[in-house]
Amino acid sequence: MARTPLIAGNWKMNLNHLEAIALVQKVAFALPEKYLEKVEVAFIPPYTDIRGVQIVIEGDKLGFAYGAQDVSVHESGAYTGEISAGMLAKLGCTYVVVGHSERREYHSETDELVAAKAAACHKHGLSPIVCVGEKLETREAGDHVGFVVEQLKGSLAGLDKGQLASTVIAYEPVWAIGTGKTASAADAQEVCAAIRAALTELAGPEIADQMRVLYGGSVNSSTVGELLEQPDVDGGLVGGSSLKPDEFAQLSAIAAGGPLP
Ligand SMILES: O=C[C@H](O)COP(=O)(O)O
């Protein structure tokens, strides 16, 4: 089945709320609307930017989606510094990245916590983008496929088939993030195919076939075309290149089927 590619720009901890609005406007200026019929483009800014991003996207009917980089497992209450899924849903978010390797590494997030965050998203109609990926030593030992599949199963534990259907997976080999080393298209396909096989086990072929599996790690306009030609790669979770409006517009256009004129 044809899956609409998703290009999600994870800004990480970059851009204040004024810079955020300017970036969305520049991408909208560079990327003619017709491309959005063939690719879904989402912005994943820091929490403080989401309101501004919402206003410019909704106000100008830009056709982009947006979301958050993390979420609390708690609903509300005395959890200083936390942001709930309900708050993000109220702001019109579609997506929430959960289990990014930077959160797993710097905030000691476990598969169990990631699964709880994914469940919190679903409770409020948000689609989690569940991130998985191996470190360099695991790849060098040749254990990357088994590692990623186990991490995936742990990070989706407890989700029912309906929830899985509206979950996005992002395969991000840690050694390729922010390093300029993109996994080869064949490397990405190998793991994304194993992810889809695991999703088939969990949710059945019909649902697994409609779920999007993204690749992330130094994606840019030169690499996105070949990555998306792979049968199990359905888009990109894009870090550094999402902060450059012309580059992000170009790679989104390529994901839609052709470069900008
Ligand atoms: O979430 C995005 C990924 O961590 C990839 O970041 P990158 O494109 O800067 O390598």
Automatic annotation (TrEMBL):
The keyword Isomerase is assigned to this record: yes
Check the record and name the CDD domains matching this protein.
Answer: TIM
Annotated Gene3D superfamilies: Aldolase class I
Q: What are the TM regions of this chain, as residue ranges?
A: none
Q: Which residues bind substrate?
A: N10, W11, K12, G178, S218, G239, G240
Please name the GO terms that the record assigns under molecular function. Answer: isomerase activity
Q: Which Pfam families match?
A: TIM
- Looking at its record, which EC class is this enzyme? isomerase
The protein's superkingdom reads: Bacteria
Q: Hydrolase: is it a keyword of this entry?
A: no
- This entry's Enzyme Commission designation comes to 5.3.1.1
* Annotated metabolic or biological route of this protein: Carbohydrate degradation; glycolysis; D-glyceraldehyde 3-phosphate from glycerone phosphate: step 1/1; Carbohydrate biosynthesis; gluconeogenesis
Q: Reaction catalysed by this chain?
A: D-glyceraldehyde 3-phosphate = dihydroxyacetone phosphate
The family note in this entry says: Belongs to the triosephosphate isomerase family.
As for what it does, the entry says: Involved in the gluconeogenesis. Catalyzes stereospecifically the conversion of dihydroxyacetone phosphate (DHAP) to D-glyceraldehyde-3-phosphate (G3P).
What protein name is recorded for this chain? Triosephosphate isomerase
Annotated source species: Dietzia cercidiphylli
